[in-house]
Amino acid sequence: MDDDNQLVRIVVQEHPDLEGGPVEIEALAEELTDVETAALDLVRFELHVPGGEPQRYVMEVDAFNKLAADTPMPEVLRDAKRVVSPVPKQASPAAPEKERINYASLEHAGKPHKGRTQDAEKVLVQQHFDEVNQRLAQAGIRTIDLGNPDHVGRYGLEELAKERGSATA
Contact at 8 Å (CB) between 26 and 9? Predict the structure, then answer.
């Protein structure tokens, strides 16, 4: 296959008929030979009017540059104040919690984790041993083995291991 017949990936980021964000399409390289000559030099900007929502605009560079009457636009842009993207307010509180799992809940009790096993998790595993193991197995997570001394000690399952005749009892 020669270079003109190669597929090219096109990511359409903005289009008046595009809804729901960028999309990806493909075209043959030979179909896109006029893209560079047909492309426009554009400026994309927002107008922030007091008391109103920002409005987005796209203009050709030459038309935009003419808006700067006294000073050439390249100089205006060079000397302009940099915009710092605001951090979303939702991100701040969510950051410290960052996937914090409550192992003292029936939903997460018994899942492997680092650190000390809290008494509340031990009690849940002891009281709902079969249910916890069934949930773990369905999720493809290792189950709690009454024959494993580490598991028995971690969750305080000595009595249950004895009752069920486990090798560690």
Answer: yes
What are 75's two structure tokens? 């100089």
Type of residue numbered 140? G
d(CA 122, CA 107): 13
31 three-class SS: helix
pTM, full prediction: 0.42
pLDDT tens series, the chain, 169 aa: 455 568 888 888 888 788 888 889 998 988 888 888 888 889 989 999 999 898 888 899 999 999 998 999 999 999 999 888 776 665 555 545 556 788 888 888 998 888 788 888 888 889 999 999 999 999 899 999 999 998 989 899 999 889 888 765 5
- How far apart are alpha carbons 112 and 114 in whole angstroms? 7
